[in-house]
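Sharing a chain and its predicted structure for anyone who wants a worked example. Both blocks are below, sequence first, tokens second.
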Amino acid sequence: MYSKDEQRHLYELSKKLLHSPDPVDTATAIATATDLRQVIVYHEWRYYALNDPVISDYEYDMLYKKLQAIEARFPALVTPDSPTQRVSSDLTEEFATVEHLTPMLSLDNSYDAEDLRDFDERIKNYLGLPLDLDIEYCVEPKFDGGTIALVYENDQLVRAATRGNGAMGDEITPNIRTLRSVPLRAGFSEMGIVKAELRGEAIIRKDVFEKLNEARAADDLTLFANPRNAATGGLRTKDPSETASRRIEAFVYQLGFAVDSNGNNKLEAFQTHDSTIDYLGKLGFKVPLHHPQEGERRVCKNITEVTAFCKTWQDKRESYAYEIDGMVVKVNDLQLQQRTGSTAHHPRWAIAFKFKAKQATSKLLHVEFQVGKVGSITPVAKLEPVQLAGVTVSSVSLHNEDFIRNKDIRLGDRVLVERAGDVIPYIVKPMEELRDGSEREVVFPSHCPVCHSELVRAEDEAAWRCENPDCEAQLLQRMIHHVSKNAMNIDGFGESQIERFYRLGWLRNIADIYRLDYEKIAQLEGFGEKSAANLHKSIEKAKQNPIHRLLHSLSIHHLGIKASKILAAEIGNVMELKDWDEERFTNIKDIGPVLTHNVIRFFQNEKNVELLREMEALGVNLTQTEDDRPKAVSADAPLAGKTILFTGTLSKMGRKEAQAKAEAAGAKNISAVSGNLDYLVVGEDAGSKLKKAQALGTVTILTEDEFLALVGG
């Protein structure tokens, strides 16, 4: 964008302007403002596009304030592309929806070298090219932020929008104008381009994100979850100054549309995708840098080079200044791109190579042994805090004793930690080569860490268990489970309230939940009369729950939601189960001997029976309701007799809601792809299940919209 001589001149001009007196006449003000705009744009490019500033933040601020002062004194000198016009004082009341000049499609995904080879072969087959012919690809980072579309007319930024649904997006122009890495003016006209649309990604540097959260913590504000959320949220804020405060940057990665004054396509002036990115970089946009060895962007002569480059970046992603979750592979030749075309979902000429789950090393400091609602002892590793996929991880479940022994995990080990699917922290392995001899064996307790009862382990189970039903830890966990969403679903009554009331001595068993003193609760700090009244209302409502919820809430080992519904459909009252024998249980489909033993054992304990009688006396329903009876499904239901499975992220409903819709339409939800599967519903980021279903060739694959249409919305 700037030659060495130009950069030297602008730097010297900056120093001169810092010490120049304020202009007193219009002519001097015009000249000074023009110079200030030039040097400020230059320094923004150095800082935001190159990450290589040549002046301090303080000096930049002084230049910026000098320009602000001149424009305040001489308002007629303010220009639309002045750096001071990036932040508007007007609040955006709502976002208008705008149509993209060309569709913004999704990307197909790949996960390994084989996937990339398949992608390469598909392109050659589609184009009728020999399989041994090399195709040139351009590879660049897949930034983990918010996708944006920028429209320039007559060199001016006139519109910015989110990706939206690919065809339409939310207009966020005032917010994007605050991003100093987005030029307000760019010289497209030098190539005869009158109107252009660019695609890019709005992101926040990792180090900037940490500082943002430090500032929010100091102000006692909720911390941002990760850089991506902070960036995408900042794009949609109603106040552009809030967007500016998050120091969002934007990488531009595609020139998607370009025409001259007669509407002729100016993209034909470029031969390769790589050359378009170079061109945008010269215009002042922040683009992935192209360097044969160290760059983020590389032109690879074949798919073998692509694979090696992707794996290189997978290994060094943590050292990169921005969050990336993969690399994007694009056919470099624009004519080949045009010939290859697109599906309704994605371009055939591009694919995303998704990185493996993020990993990091940490030190295992000690192990805590936690007691669950059915007495299971779970070892939990306490680690030196480590950043994984945007969150700080300091606790990781070690599952059971066998897991620890099989992996030979020791206290003091450096361990490799992974967030499987970027969700659940998991210890992959200890780093044995880093041991210095100070590491110690993890000793599993022989007695409950809370009530000190001797632990037992069934032959067919991996978990050690405390079998004392009066163990305080189990009592507490059972109450927490009882009020949870999947059990009695008592709104506004969570784990923290249960623990607080337990410490106060107000809760000692499940029945106590239904005899709380709401006048006392209202007097607690953080409650008040309204909160106490709302809790009272929620508990009264829960008393009328169908009995399948009550059965699931009792923490009977292996009695999950599905089995609770099956049993509830067979009884008129919960108390009937205390008189059932083993045969009565096992005659019911899907009720096995282990669950049968656990339910019988529960009802043989007089304390449990007395607890249910107490609850009934307090108004808790123990009688079958209409919701407990199986819903009749007509033979002509859209999915009658079919099996179904959901994979990936659904955008219009949660997984449980989707499964309920499928069940209501007559389908049976199953958990794995097999020859017995009829339908696979695919959301975003579908993985191995989709591949397996495609390989079978007998499974009907549906999009979320197709599923909704099939079941009637």
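Comments welcome. The two ends are 53 Å apart (CA to CA).
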